[in-house]
Amino acid sequence: MPVNSDFRDAVQNKNVLMVRIMMKDSLILDPTFAEFDAMTREAESELGAKVLYDKHDGARFDTNEANWNKTYLDEQIADLMSNFSRERISHVKKICSVIYADEIDNIKRKRHEKSRTLEHDHDQYSDQGNDTNKAFWLIMFAFAVLIIILVLCWWFF
């Protein structure tokens, strides 16, 4: 999944705070993390991991999924902005995966359906292209035969 131009601009301008905010927002907006992973690759590539991430502040996380709800997620997201560590990001991803499990399944299903539709459309376009190519060569063959006949007629008559 490609990143948007605003994110790319923030990375190029080395606006680490804006990069982190946009990455944080993508965790909620796309709980499949496809966008977040693309953003991570670009930000790490351009800024470097040492600039992008904080050292973990040592906070311990609640690992009991029964306690995970949107309020707890909001707290962890807020903490993420004051400590943008790999450990906290990983924990937030786990929480999102549990809280948004149904939504994640729906998004993945829709992406799969869209991908299949695009493949089908591409196959149909390719078939149409083959039909067009066949028609073109058939016309060219007919034209060549016509020219040969005209040349032979002119030669012999």
Description:
With 157 residues, this protein is mainly alpha-helical. Helix 1 packs parallel to helix 3 and helix 2 runs antiparallel to helix 3. The radius of gyration is 28 Å and the shape is elongated. It starts with a helix and ends with a helix. The mean pLDDT is 88.
Determine the fraction of residues in helical runs and give it as a percent range: over 70%
Note the run of SSEs as H and E.
HHHHHHH
Rounded to the nearest angstrom, the radius of gyration is 28 Å
The total beta strand count reads: 0
Give the DSSP E fraction (strand runs of 2 or more residues): under 5%
* Mean of residue pLDDT values: 88
Question: Could you give the distance between the termini?
Answer: 69 Å
Global outline: elongated
- Main sheet: strands, sense, barrel: none
Output the structural class: mainly alpha
Q: Output the number of helix runs.
A: 7
Oligomer: single chain
Return residue spans where pLDDT drops below 50 for at least 5 consecutive residues. Answer: none
Task: Describe how the helices and strands are arranged.
Elements: H1 5-12, H2 16-29, H3 34-47, H4 49-52, H5 70-82, H6 86-99, H7 101-156
Helix pairs in contact: 1-3, 2-3, 5-6
Brief rundown of the structure:
It is built from 7 helices and no strands.
Primary descriptors:
157 residues; mainly alpha; elongated
